Amino acid sequence: xxxxxxxxxxLFLVCPICGMESYVRQHFGDGYFYTAPASxxxxxxPETIEALRETVFRxxxxxxxxxxxxxxxxxxxxxxxxxxxxxxxxxxxxxxxPEDTALSITYKVMKHQMERLGAKDLFGAAxxxxxxxxxxLITARHAQNLVTV
Length: 149
Prior knowledge:
Blueprint: E1 10-14, H1 20-28, E2 32-35, H2 46-58, E3 63-69, H3 73-79, H4 87-95, H5 102-117, H6 120-128, E4 133-140, E5 145-148
Parallel strand pairs: 1-2, 1-3, 3-4
Antiparallel strand pairs: 4-5
Helix pairs in contact: 3-4
């Protein structure tokens, strides 16, 4: 899945704490990176929306790949029932149920985030008309696994 010259640039949405940039480059080649703790972006923040749009359109991004790691420290904090300190942890906790595993809660977070990204007022039109392709990837980096969602 290396990027060839005829492909448009990719934007990877990652958690800066998980250190996924080198891992992603190893598996997918070069691209742009946009980060938020636990890969949880808050699309109710106008600055986040504007910065993300600017990054995508200025760099002619044709594919957005959301990357979340099931071994992320923020996922683990929720699973261990530690107090939520950051906004991302509150989001994860709102999706959490006692039956969840690291993989299942990561999947729920990704699904939630993908729905938000596809909202009409963000990139919905560009996604619908095929200008921007969106996918997600859950990693279990410590286990050296990649799961495409």
